[in-house]
Design brief:
201 residues; mainly alpha; 2 domains; 9 helices
Length: 201
């Protein structure tokens, strides 16, 4: 038996989603005051989900109301956060997504409960331009947890220039995925094939 992880997470889900949203917002080139405001809201929402048991009701709307009350009126107007405006609708949609059972599970997921018990050979690969699951932190997490398991037969590899879908990418942005003709980099398939062949010799 062996395992290949492609863009898997090696750190807590709450930390993955914070890094993911921070990267996505930064790449949108929004003004700094808007970026800081949204990060404060998003991180507060993620922390609340992380702290709340899955079987308990979750009220994130109050977070939005409290957050909005701290913003200058000019920023509220610029971000279109008044009732019925596009910015408010966007955040309501975001709150609905974060409240979904799967998202709540993901945010609370701790890979240590699984990876620290894996004894079989492991290949963990992530793309350097992945903005959904950052290669550096997550591969380091895999390495730390596999060592904790006493696993001596594993390999972690950051693949340069590849996005979350292992396509050769320019930016790694989500809206770039559909514009790339390549389904998956042939180099990735070769890396996996070579590694698997060594396991089944």
């Amino acid at each position: 038996a062996f395992m290949v992880s492609m863009a898997g997470i090696g750190i807590k889900g709450v930390d993955v989603i914070k890094k993911q949203n921070s990267s996505i917002l930064k790449k949108s080139n929004m003004p700094d005051d808007q970026y800081k405001a949204l990060i404060a809201l998003y991180f507060g929402l993620f922390d609340k989900v992380y702290a709340q048991d899955l079987n308990k009701n979750l009220d994130l709307k109050t977070n939005f109301i409290k957050w909005k009350s701290t913003l200058p009126k000019a920023l509220i107007d610029t971000m279109q956060l008044n009732e019925g405006q596009a910015g408010e609708e966007m955040i309501n949609s975001f709150i609905s997504t974060v409240s979904l059972p799967w998202m709540r599970y993901f945010i609370r997921y701790n890979p240590e409960t699984i990876i620290s018990k894996i004894k079989i050979p492991v290949l963990a690969i992530n793309g350097s331009k992945d903005i959904q699951v950052s290669a550096t932190e997550n591969l380091a997490g895999f390495e730390r947890l596999l060592k904790k398991a006493g696993n001596k037969d594993f390999k972690t590899q950051e693949l340069p220039g590849l996005n979350h879908l292992f396509q050769t990418a320019e930016t790694g942005n989500l809206d770039e995925y559909a514009r790339i003709d390549e389904t998956i980099s042939p180099a990735v398939l070769q890396i996996i094939t070579d590694w698997v062949k060594r396991q089944v010799k």
